[in-house]
Design a protein that fits this description.
Blueprint: H1 5-31, H2 35-65, H3 72-89
Length: 96
C-alpha cells in the first residue's frame, strides 16, 4: 500500500502546531488568575489531547501497513507518541 506523504506531512505539521499550543496553554495557565480563562484552557488542553490521540491512532495504523521501518509514518508515530507522553507527564499542572 502506497501512503500519501503529503497527508502524513500535514499531520506532522499539525502535531508540531498542537505541541506548541499545549506549551502556550500551560504557560498561560501558570500566569493567569482568571477562573473563566483557566476553565477554557483546561478544556482546550483536553481537546488538543484528544486530537493528538486520534493522529497517533492513524499513525499506528499506517505503521502496521507499512513495510519500511524508517518513513514519514514512523516519524509521525514517534512525534505523536512523544507529545502524548509530554502531555501526560505534565498534566498535573492543571490540578495545583
Amino acid at each position: 500500500m502506497k501512503i500519501s506523504e503529503s497527508i502524513v506531512n500535514n499531520l506532522l505539521i499539525e502535531v508540531d502546531s498542537l505541541t506548541c499550543r499545549i506549551r502556550g496553554i500551560k504557560h498561560s495557565y501558570k500566569t493567569t488568575f482568571n477562573e473563566g480563562l483557566r476553565e477554557r484552557l483546561i478544556e482546550e488542553n483536553k481537546n488538543i489531547f484528544e486530537r493528538i490521540k486520534e493522529i497517533n491512532k492513524v499513525s499506528n495504523f499506517l505503521m502496521e501497513r507499512s513495510k519500511e521501518k524508517i518513513s514519514l509514518s514512523a516519524l509521525l508515530e514517534e512525534r505523536s507518541r512523544r507529545t502524548l507522553d509530554e502531555i501526560k507527564t505534565e498534566n498535573n499542572l492543571f490540578f495545583l
